[in-house]
Amino acid sequence: MSTDVRPRPLTMALSKGRIFEETLPLLEAAGIQVSENPEQSRKLIIETSDPNLRLIIVRASDVPTYVEYGAADLGIAGKDVLIEHAANHPGGLYQPIDLNIAKCRLAVAVKNGFDYAAAVKQGARLRVATKYTEAARAHFAAKGVYVDLIKLYGSMELAPLVGLADAIVDLVSTGNTLKANNLVAVEDIMPISSRLVVNRAALKTRQAELQPILDAFERASRPAVA
Ligand code: AMP
């Protein structure tokens, strides 16, 4: 039988790349330093300067799952990921703060020269490839456009180029990826940014430990007033 009765440190789930990098200044604002970069160390559990806070590095689309099941107390995930997760787990996560990081937009894109407006007007059934099937379904339903959605897990840009789909729904930041693949954005669906999500039970049982982090993140992510 284990005699270790120390409480587990607070655990925050993050994905590598842009979300990790843009979270570092928020942690710093809360007085927390992270000494390791998961891109280099390949570690999946990362200690911080706060002995009561550790980070776990997971796939972006897995962040809501770790937090909802309580394997992480809190996490950071894009609105795109949260919309897809919420479709199967409504109300599972507490989302207190839009952190205004990892900003981009969800958009419809087609091959250069494809007349999207005409295709939509004609009422033809569009084939749309995307990882974001829930957001895409809601968007086209609201427009009254019939679509066949094709679920992909990456490299959506390829689909219109090889005849898999007429259009894609994907995240666009600079637009360089679309341009490099001879695609154009024809419709914006919604702006995207990352949000802090918190496990509902932890919010009650570990509120005293969570609150300073929530407060610091809230202050640090507030848009500057002009
Ligand atoms: P860009 O070439 O800058 O328009 O970036 C587009 C590519 O980066 C696409 O493959 C997107 O799926 C991905 N991307 C852009 N912004 C984000 C973001 N905030 N989170 C995750 N992926 C993103």
Radius of gyration: 20 Å
Strand order of the largest sheet: 2-3-1-4-9-5-8-6-7
Q: Per CATH, what is the topology of the largest domain?
A: D-Maltodextrin-Binding Protein, domain 2
What is bound: which ligands? adenosine monophosphate
Largest sheet: 9 strands, mixed
Strand content: 25-35%
Name the overall outline: elongated
CATH homologous superfamily label of the largest domain = Periplasmic binding protein-like II
Distance between the termini: 59 Å
CATH architecture of the largest domain: 3-Layer(aba) Sandwich
Helix content: 25-40%
- Extract low-pLDDT stretches: none
One letter per element, helices H and strands E, the order comes to EHHEEHEHEHEHEHEHEHH
Please identify the structural class as seen in this structure. Answer: alpha/beta
The total domain count is 2
Summarize the model shown.
With 226 residues, the protein is α/β, with parallel strands linked by helices.
If you had to describe this structure to a student in words, what would you say it looks like?
It is a single chain. With 226 residues, the protein is α/β, with parallel strands linked by helices. It is 35% helix and 31% strand. It has helices spanning 18-29, 38-41, 63-68, 79-88, 116-121, 133-143, 158-161, 176-180, 200-205, 207-221; strands at 10-14, 45-47, 53-57, 74-78, 93-111, 126-130, 147-151, 167-172, 183-199. Strands 2-3-1-4-9-5-8-6-7 form a nine-stranded mixed β-sheet. Strand 2 (45-47) and strand 3 form a beta hairpin. Helix 1 (18-29) packs across helix 10. The protein is elongated. Bound molecules: adenosine monophosphate. Adenosine monophosphate is lined by residues 18, 78, 102, 104, 170-177.
